[in-house]
Please model this.
Amino acid sequence: MNPKINFNSAAEKHAYVNQMFARIAPRYDIMNRLMSAGQDGRWRNLLVKQLQLPPQGNLLDIATGTGDIAFEAVRQRPDLAQVVGADFTLPMMTIGKNRYPQLQNRQKLSWSGADTVYLPFPDDYFDGVVSGFLMRNVTNVANVLADQTRVCKPGGKVAILEIPRPAESLFGAMFRLYFHNIVPMLGGIISGQPDAYSYLPHSADAFLRPEELKQAMETAGLKNVQYTMLMMGTVALHVGQK
Model:
């Protein structure tokens, strides 16, 4: 099945993304481990470390999915006051709520049905706002960054883990070959949803390059924006300060 990549409106893409993630929710975690060769846990660990959150700080993980980043924050930083995992795809969070029932300090993690298009949180509330593999799926990066910055405290940090548009290089071409051919085939076998795993690589092709995302974060009002390239330059971790 051909991926849905040409949308007639922002509302159409919004609905497609929501429904697509709902369909792949039961196999989402195992596919992440397979696609990243098990490296995604290391990326989340690094993301939480780079936030440098203060003791008793508050963290928002927007587009939390099944809660991978949120759970990493609870594990790594038991001194945090609150971690909020928020997503507009409720079936993903339903799975997340049932993970790691014995995790210490799990009560510090709460869940919110929230859309990154408009975050239902007050201004200057969180010490850190993070997202993992969200930004390729939004229709207006500038607006989403502005709202993430709004809910972040002055001095707090906004962090984005994402697959940017592949570089025009030999390795970029090899990555496209893997992402456009192996991943959909594997996704079809594991999840039964090959169209969803065809959409995902096309969304990377249409996304910003790392330097372009850095500039967008600066335009949103973030300072000292830095990024780290991971997995041989195919994944980027951006961090900026409000």
Observations:
- Residues 10-165+208-241 form a domain with the Rossmann fold fold (CATH 3.40.50.150).
- Strands lie at 58-62, 82-87, 109-113, 126-132, 152-162, 223-230, 235-241.
